[in-house]
């Protein structure tokens, strides 16, 4: 499994604002958990809808990913992004961690995302953080 390539493809879908390309990175019945408490988005259609809604609330993303860590079809990777509100241009910064489990074909079967955000700020990650 090439986790770095999967992350690069996720980042490309994000930059190109392409929810279908992002959903194609997941298995047909993948579960996509955003945080520990809410119900997951299940399946490519639900994941594409989630990303379509997410992308509608942001513009001009600048995204960084850390070096993935993992083995045997599982990986974790930190991420950081600066986004802007599409209506006001107000910046937002968010940082978090992805926990991924991959199917044999290299697509993600289980995705767990934990993150924190800072409103009205555009803060880049610390030096040395970027992979």
UniProtKB/TrEMBL annotation:
Residues 12-110 form the SnoaL-like domain. Transmembrane segments: none annotated. Gene3D superfamilies: 3.10.450.50. It comes from the Bacteria. Signal peptide: none annotated. Coiled coil: none annotated. This is SnoaL-like domain-containing protein. It comes from Actinoplanes regularis.
């Amino acid at each position: 499994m090439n986790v770095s390539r999967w992350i690069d493809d996720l980042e490309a879908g994000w930059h190109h604002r392409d929810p279908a390309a992002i959903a194609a990175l997941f298995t047909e019945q993948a579960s996509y958990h955003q945080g520990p408490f809410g119900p997951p988005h299940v399946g490519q259609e639900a994941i594409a809808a989630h990303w379509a809604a997410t992308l509608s609330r942001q513009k001009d993303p600048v995204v960084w990913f850390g070096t993935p860590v993992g083995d045997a079809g599982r990986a974790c990777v930190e991420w950081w992004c600066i986004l802007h509100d599409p209506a006001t241009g107000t910046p937002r910064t968010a940082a978090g961690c992805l926990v991924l489990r991959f199917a044999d074909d290299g697509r993600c079967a289980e995705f767990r995302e934990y993150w924190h955000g800072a409103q009205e700020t555009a803060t880049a990650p610390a030096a040395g953080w970027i992979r």
